[in-house]
Design goal:
Length: about 130
């Protein structure tokens, strides 16, 4: 469901490796959410989503540091976007507030994962891909 694709490549190995890892973590969360009879499923998903959040924040730090090192023109734009997403992550990745039956909860997790990866993909395509070019 979630995977790194060639079209997402920026040409900067460190950034591409970290993006690959982000998709792997998202896929892990997706796979757990699809399992039906797993005890403590939501604890596991919460742990993976926390990992996704932490790794994203770390990745942003690395990416911004790299952009700074090459004096990239779009650093400021990226910082603003990263910050907005960081806030969104804090807000979204809190499953302890999940309510409703299992089906509803699974739907919420699907929506969260979809939102996070959609953001990531469009950010990579529209912003990160310029890092290797400009
Ligand atoms: Fe970025
Ligand atoms: Fe990135």
């Amino acid at each position: 469901m979630y995977e790194m694709k060639d079209e997402y490549l920026t040409g900067v190995p460190m950034i591409d490796e970290e993006h690959t890892r982000l998709f792997e973590i998202a896929e892990e969360a997706y796979q757990i959410s699809k399992q039906e009879f797993v005890p403590d499923k939501y604890d596991q998903i919460q742990a993976v989503l926390d990992e996704l959040k932490d790794y994203t924040v770390l990745h942003f730090e690395h990416e911004e540091a790299y952009m700074e090192s090459i004096k990239h023109k779009k650093l400021y734009t990226q910082k603003i976007q990263h910050e907005g997403f960081r806030r969104k992550l804090e807000e979204l990745v809190r499953l302890d507030e999940l309510e409703g039956d299992q089906q509803e909860q699974d739907k919420v997790i699907d929506d969260i994962l979809k939102f996070l990866t959609d953001w990531l993909v469009s950010h990579i395509l529209n912003n990160d891909k310029l890092i290797g070019k400009l």
